[in-house]
Structure formats: structure tokens, C-alpha cells
Design brief:
One of its GO terms (molecular function) is metal ion binding. In the C-terminal section; belongs to the phosphate acetyltransferase and butyryltransferase family. In the N-terminal section; belongs to the malic enzymes family. Its cofactor is Mn(2+); Mg(2+). Pfam families: malic, Malic_M, PTA_PTB. By secondary structure, this protein is an alpha/beta fold. The protein folds into 5 domains: 118 residues, Rossmann fold (3-Layer(aba) Sandwich); 154 residues, Rossmann fold (3-Layer(aba) Sandwich); 101 residues, no CATH class; 136 residues, Rossmann fold (3-Layer(aba) Sandwich); 144 residues, Isocitrate/Isopropylmalate dehydrogenase-like (Rossmann fold, 3-Layer(aba) Sandwich), CATH 3.40.50. Helices cover 43% and strands 13% of the residues. It is built from 32 helices and 21 strands. The strands form 4 sheets. Strands 7-6-5-8-9-10 form a 6-stranded mixed β-sheet. A 6-stranded mixed β-sheet has the order 18-17-19-16-15-20, sandwiched between helices. Strands 13-12-11-14-21 form a 5-stranded parallel β-sheet, with helices on both faces. It is globular, with a radius of gyration of 29 Å. The structure holds NADPH dihydro-nicotinamide-adenine-dinucleotide phosphate, pyruvic acid and magnesium ion. The site of pyruvic acid has 8 residues, from helix 9.
Amino acid sequence: MPDTEKKQRPVTSVTDNEALEFHAMGRPGKLEINATKPMATQRDLSLAYSPGVAVPVKAIAADPATAYDYTTRGNMVAVISNGTAILGLGNLGALASKPVMEGKSVLFKRFADVDSIDLEVDTENVDEFINCVRFLGPSFGGINLEDIKAPDCFIIEQRLRELMDIPVFHDDQHGTAIIAAAGLINALELTGRDLKTTKLVCNGAGAAAIACVELIKAMGFAPENITLCDTKGVIYQGRTEGMNQWKSAHAVKTKARTLEEAMKGADVVFGLSQKGAFSEKMIRSMADRPVIFAMANPDPEITPEEVARIRDDAIMATGRSDYPNQVNNVLGFPYIFRGALDVRATTINDAMKIAAVQALANLAREDVPDDVVAAYQGNRPRFGAQYIIPVPFDPRLISAIPVAVAQAAIDSGVARKPISDMAAYARELSARRDPIASTLASLYERVRRRPKRVVFAEAEEEQVMRAAMSYANQELGTAILLGREDLIRQTAERAGIDLNRPGLEIVNARISTRVEAYTDYLYARLQRKGYLHRDAQRLIHNDRNHFAACMVALGDADGMVTGITRNYSTALEDVRRCIDMKPGHRVIGVSIALCRGRTVFVADTAVHDMPNAEELADIAVEAAGFARRMGYQPRVAMLAYSTFGHPSGERSERVREAVKILDKRRLDFEYDGEMAADVALNRKVMEQYPFCRLSGPANVLVMPAFHSASISTKMLQELGGSTVIGPILVGLDKAVQITSMGAKDSDIVNMAAIAAYTAGS
Ligand SMILES: NC(=O)C1=CN([C@@H]2O[C@H](COP(=O)(O)OP(=O)(O)OC[C@H]3O[C@@H](n4cnc5c(N)ncnc54)[C@H](OP(=O)(O)O)[C@@H]3O)[C@@H](O)[C@H]2O)C=CC1
Ligand SMILES: CC(=O)C(=O)O
Ligand SMILES: [Mg+2]
């Protein structure tokens, strides 16, 4: 495969089954509502509901602006659709649009901490739709219209903007236009073109297309250089079929009648239409160094692979997250609303949109600072054909875009609550985002760049098989399925998995040619520990963990994942018989707990039952090193039930001793203790101890013993709604990860990716 084509291949793909299982697992759908106030006691109820609730009611009645102080309004956006243009899938109805709308809601939360709810309105009647939405104003700080077909969407948005005093923003129009315009500015710069003379064809003349064309004309694009096409072909002056006033406004004088004719010699083409609308012939006929934005979702008008087969001089972008250059409104709507909400803007006007375009375009040209390299596929992206627009996981977006939008709202007089200290606002915005998702994304990306062979030791189990397939699908490397071939094939059939796909390899321990080598290796390690040669042989023959660990030890695999069928400590013992500790290190388990936008590393959650002071100090060092490798500045709290000596007791003494041991080592990370968990995690409580050496709440928690580590992480998971990844084994000489028994396929693939990642470091 040519290099250019390889570069363009999607880096992840998911199967239909995976997508359905993802949506169905646990509580169906993608979001739920949580209370932000305690609801435990009679008093709580009296405050939250009657009689207490009457007080804010009266306050809001007297002064409506106080709704922003006493209700969710100021941070709450409605994502509203009638499902008449769901992505590029067409009119599939309000109910079918719900997964996309839930998706937009969670993206609001994930990327910009905007709370949002999806509302699917079951009517295609424009007036009914407008009437439904116009009365919802008091509930929300903003309205994000989504996937409503043209031309209805133009009328709906226009009327609602007039009727409502909060921002109404049709994302498919303006979100798309903002991102496409930012990408276009950069693509023109890279290909040495001038906005005023560039020739652009836009296929599609609906919501997204009309808005894109309007915005780039407002930015200086010559109207006569833009040719719009729809299902009937070119929109030329005088055309009558399939027209409306929005299309007519962009009709041009031209002899071209078909898309194919229009695209001859074009510099730029926008696809905002449907899968497969661009043929290879059309792409071949474009000017040198063409700019191709094939933005239809989920499948573009032409794929990057197809373009790469035809020519190697194109700048190519799609709407998908699995190719380079994702021109998708996800880069816009969360941040644009963030900025608009924070200044309580009455609308999102052109000045705010253009500010967002500039901020986005500039961000892609800036040097990427070290602390965000992690979000860019593990190495430093540089402004160029493969990088014309920031990636959605860029942690700078959250401060750059809302600041620009908020400033433009203030300058253009639509901000009801101007911000005076923009630098402080930018800092506050950065603090709203937790880096873990970008860290995990970058971890996956790094593995993709250096794919690894990971052995899945329990491949006869269905969820392991699914995880292995996902590992291969995501192009993380080769998944080696260890087990009896007949059983593996049966499991694969049951799970609907095609074992002939690239990236899957079956190894049957019983007939492997490596049995002898592994047996000799294991015997050499165990002969002075009471094992006979035949004991070693039996372990290799009969036990998958020993076989897999020997594969890794002797370099036949880069990493290993196990744990589904055997308890953690047994699996660890199996592995330790075959693999040593890294010299100078200690083997520990670190769990990553993701909890309400915060990430904490908890150690030791796997190995040391009741660590002594020396061991606790080592655990702190290992855990801090791991947190750093994951992109965090470690702040380590040595936890106990007491804080700085009170109340005293033997168990806390051990932790105090560990801190003294750490004091004697020359360490390059912050640590302190002993302290209770609330002191470690709550800035206000920590302030009661002004001598505490931590500069902020801890992000690495060293537990006094295994039981407290295990109990607290499991409680976080079960009661606190946290996602817990791990325990991740740290300190082994080879890359082995052990999942918990009964782990889900998604947990297993995370562990396999972590094994692959550590195999490379
Ligand atoms: N990457 C991104 O961020 C975004 C991408 N999009 C994508 O853009 C596309 C359009 O969405 P949207 O504008 O909301 O939908 P609309 O329904 O408003 O518009 C669709 C337009 O596409 C035209 N069209 C459909 N099929 C073809 C075809 N084969 N050739 C030429 N024109 C065609 C229609 O023509 P006619 O008028 O004749 O019916 C219509 O003008 C979708 O694929 C969507 O996923 C949308 C928003 C954001
Ligand atoms: C991305 C998006 O909003 C769409 O394709 O409709
Ligand atoms: Mg959309």
C-alpha cells in the first residue's frame, strides 16, 4: 500500500454490534441526570422542595435574572431536533434522531462542561415546531437546533431567534460553517491560494452547505467563484426545478450543469451531501493541490483512501474522527455555547462566529506546547496538509474558543454579564477539563503508531475474544488468541467474529513449537524452588498464564492480558513465576479513578497487603512515576485515618515514617502526609493546614494498606459513579496486565492497550 494511502486509513473502526452494545450496556442510552444538592434529609427536602423552593421562586418572579443564580438555566442547553436530516442519513424521524441528540448532549458536557438535554420534537410542520420550542425559553440558557432539513431549518432558526432572548443556534448550519471556514483558511494558506480568486464547488445546498457558503462569502470569497450543486445538479441562474429562495441567493451564471462539469479545474470542493457523491473522475479533474472537504456523515462523499489512490497532492478532510483533519461541528458547538453562556449572551451573532473561526484557525498554526502533545497522536503535529485544524481532544480548545466568543459577544454588545478579567476566565476554563480522556486517547494513538503483539491469554472466553477483535480493529497491533483452536473458533462463531481478518492470530499451546523453549526457560527459573522439569512442562502445557507470560518473556509477544477466569493474586503469581520485577523498582497496582471530571491515581490496589514504611515510600515513588507517564504532575498524598499526627495511632505512625523516608530521598514530585482523604482531596479542608507541602488537591493517593485501597476504589465505583481503570500493574520487567474477574470487553481492551503502551516505554 502506498504511504499516502496508508496515512489516510481510518485509525479506528467499530462494528455495528459494538455500536449497539455500547448504546445498550448498563443503563440504555448515553446520559442520566444527577442531583447537585444533597437530597438525604427532611431538611434537604424542605430546602429543595416545599417550602424552601418558594423563596427562589419569588426571587425569580421579582427579578428574572436571578434564575441564573438559583437554577440550572445558565449552564443548560437544549439539543432539539425533529430528525428530518439525521447526519447524512436523511429524514428518519424524531425518535431515530435521539442517539445523535444524546450524543451531542454528552459532547457538550465532555468538552465544555455544558449541561444539556436532548429533546426530539415529533413534527415536520414548521409552525408546530417553532411553537413547541419558543415556549421552552425559561428552561434553558441556549437552544442548539440539530439535524433539521433545509429549507425548514432556515425558517425555524430565523423565527426562533426573533422570538427568544437566548442564543438559538442551528449547529448544522453555523457550527459546520465555522469549522469548515477555519479549515479552509488554513488549507488556502498551505496551498498558496488567495480567498478572492479561489474557485470552490459545494455539493449539497441544504442547511450546512448554505451556511458554509454564506460565511465564506462574508469572509471575502468572491460569490461568482462558488458553484453550488444539489441532487438536480448545478444551481445556475435561471434554474427553476428544486429551487428555494436560499438556493437562488447563490445561483451563478455558468454553463456547467452537473457536479462533474462544475468540478473540472475547481480548487476546493465541499461535500455536504451524501456518501459517495464524489467520483474518482471528478477528483482527478480538479486543479493542482486541490482542497477536498468531504464532510457527509457518517460516510464521506469520497474516502481519503480513494483520493489517495488517485492523487497525492490533495489536502483532504472529512467529518469523521477516525481520519486526520476532522472538519466536524464538534470542534465548535460546545465551546461556542460555553463562551455565550458565560457572558449570558442574548444571541450568537456573526462577530462571535467569526471570532471562533479565527481562534480555531490560529490554534492549528500555533506551536503545540509540550503538555498538549499527548493529545496529538503521541508526537508533535505540525501545521500542514495532515493537520489543518485542531483535533477535538485538544485541551487548548476549551480556553481558546470560549474566550474569543465571549470577548466578541462583549464587544458586539450582546453580553448581559460581561467578563472583566479574560485571563482569569481562560484559567478557569482550563481547570474545567480533565486531561484523562486526552491522555487515554494519546495512549491509544501512540500504540497505533507502534503497534504491538499482545497475547490474550483467555481467548476462549467471549468477552476476551471481542476485546481482541476490538484491539485488532483499532489497529493497535496483533491480538494473539491463546487457547484451543476448536474452542476459539466456536467462541468466534458465537460472537459473530471473523477470525480471518488481519490482526488476529491463534496460538494453541498444546501444539506450539515453542513449548520446549518455554519449558526450559521456566525450569531454569524454578528448579531451585522445588519444581521438576515435568512440573514446568505441565505448567506450560496446561496453564495459559504461564504460556502467555513465557511468550512475553522470550519476545514472542510484546505484552499480555489475562484475569477473566482466575482471581487477581493467582494470576499475578502465575505471571511472577515467569517474569521479574524491573531492576530498582517495586511491583504495585495503580488504579485510575475518574470521578466527576477529576482523575486520581490510587495505589497500591493490587500487590502489598500491609506495606511497611519503606514499602509505602516505594509505592509512592512508583505511583508518582506512573501518574507522570500518564501526563500528570503528581501530587502525592500519603493517606491515613489521621491528619498530621491527630489522632495518633500505630497505623498512622507507619505512614508518617514513610513520609520521613521519602524526605531522605531526592524526589522530584510533591508529597505529604499523613493525611485523611478529605484533607487530600478538598482544597478548603487542606487550607486548614497551611504548612501542607502540596500545592493543591492530591492526584495520587497512596493508601495505607491493600484493604483500604481496594475498598475505597470499589466504593467509588459502586456508589460514587466513578469509572475505575485498573489496577494497572506497574514495575514488572515485561508488559503484563491483569483485569478483574468478569471484566467487560471494553475494560479488557483498555488493559491490552495499556500493556502495549508500557511495552514500548
Ligand atoms: N461534518 C460536519 O460537521 C457536518 C456534516 N454534515 C453533513 O452534511 C450533509 C447534509 O446535511 P444537512 O445540510 O444538515 O442536510 P439537508 O437535508 O439540509 O441538506 C442536504 C442537501 O444535500 C443535497 N444532497 C443530498 N444528496 C445529494 C447528492 N447525492 N448530490 C448532491 N446533493 C445532494 C440535498 O439536495 P436537494 O436540495 O436537492 O434535496 C440538500 O441540498 C449530511 O451528510 C451531514 O452529515 C452536516 C452538518 C455538519
Ligand atoms: C456532524 C453533524 O452534525 C452532522 O453530520 O449532521
Ligand atoms: Mg448534525
